[in-house]
Amino acid sequence: MAHDEAPRRPQPVRGMQDFLGEQADRFDHVVSRFQDVARRFGFRPVHVPVLEHTHVFARSLGETSDVVAKEMYSFADRSGDSLTLRPEFTAGIARAYVSEGWQRFGTLKLFAHGPLFRYERPQKGRYRQFHQVDAEVIASPSPLADVELIAMADTLLRELGIGEGVTLQLNTLGDAESRAAWRAALVGHFAAHRDALSEDSRRRLEANPLRILDSKDPADRALVERAPGIGAFLTAAAGRFFEAVCRGLEASGVAFVETPKLVRGFDYYRHTAFEFVTDRLGAQGTLIGGGRYDGLIEAMGGPPTPAVGWAGGIERLMALAAAPPPPGVDVAVVAECPEAEHEALRIAQALRSAGCSVVAPFQGHARKRAEAAARAGSRAILYVRDPGQTPASVNLVDRSRDAGSAGRLAAIRARLPHPYGTPTGALPGSLPGSLSGPERSPARNDGDGRA
Ligand code: AMP
Fold this sequence. Notes:
Layout: H1 21-40, E1 44-45, E2 51-53, H2 54-61, H3 66-71, E3 73-76, E4 82-85, H4 90-100, E5 108-117, E6 129-138, H5 143-159, E7 166-172, H6 176-191, H7 199-207, H8 218-226, H9 236-251, E8 257-258, E9 270-278, E10 286-292, H10 296-299, E11 307-313, H11 314-320, E12 331-335, H12 341-353, E13 358-359, H13 366-375, E14 380-384, E15 393-398, H14 405-415, E16 445-450
Parallel strand pairs: 1-5, 7-8, 12-13, 12-14
Antiparallel strand pairs: 2-4, 3-4, 5-6, 6-11, 7-9, 9-10, 10-11, 14-15, 15-16
Helix pairs in contact: 1-5, 1-11, 5-9
This protein binds adenosine monophosphate (AMP).
């Protein structure tokens, strides 16, 4: 490389994204709304590793699922063990349940969020590193667990401002017996039209015929339309379970559309399967998907344990969610001169310890720092004078001039450390002569706090 050539700008890995500013705020907004809703429903956090032994996913998701067959980020670690970056939460949480003996806790209502990895073809709404919010109820066989989980997803969507234009599609995959009978009927149906199936679906016919129902290939769609739904194959018990879920959702005020050919991607689903879908995101319209996976924990070597859960894609939720309120800062502490620098640091720390959000701009003269405070969204500025002067003083200036400002300023003043302390009334304030602009207006100058 000629040495006047600029080095190539580094790029993120394909399908992986960086978030800053409003995007990062939106991301955090989705997570914090989710955590708030989950706690209001009585869920507790769970944290599991991002890496698992490959077999944790390979066995539970099904060797023939797209994720296991072609999308996992798997590699041999330095001791030769095959590890995989998690492509979903449920298998890892089920693994943890078995490894840690969590059955001793009875029914667990858990929530998690974090990054997942799938080697998919990147497009809008589909990434190779993406993020999910996830909720699971483990060790409850009750259809009311399904109802509560779905109601929680519905609440989250509404609180994110996404309720409109989103449909809850609901189906049952029945119990093992129903599912086996349905599977046989689907194989019969599709085998009779084998030549009309896409190549992928011909392969699925033996390995996993349910997944043909998921095919987006136009050749398959017509055959899927005419395929039998599960309804005719449900055992009485599976029918009652589904009925209880439907009636429970109605009682909870959650609208749904029965969707007899909805299947979920992974092998472990039983009974309830659901998706919250929207047409506002183009091809990637599934916001949240989930269902019951009664057989999974036992298949991993644990005790027979019914369970149900869902996951929602944070990138898709944040694309639709109402913009979060702009982040605000209570007060910026600005040293008026170099001699005031350390006193400004002391005051900023004291205010933070007292619960205020505080920025303390570092660079330039007081005017530059006041500008930085404005950019940071600070609602007030506290100018700190040279403490060597007598009396030592600070000057608290309002920037927002709204109805709440008097109360907010009083609250900041009450949190100032000694010797500034509580307000002594509106003393005539003076601002640094170098400052100009709205901060200088007497109406906004709230006066000094003084020892
Ligand atoms: P799944 O685990 O496949 O059932 O997906 C649950 C949710 O995660 C989906 O409804 C999407 O919102 C989201 N999701 C799944 N895969 C991706 C991806 N590759 N990129 C972005 N979001 C995804």
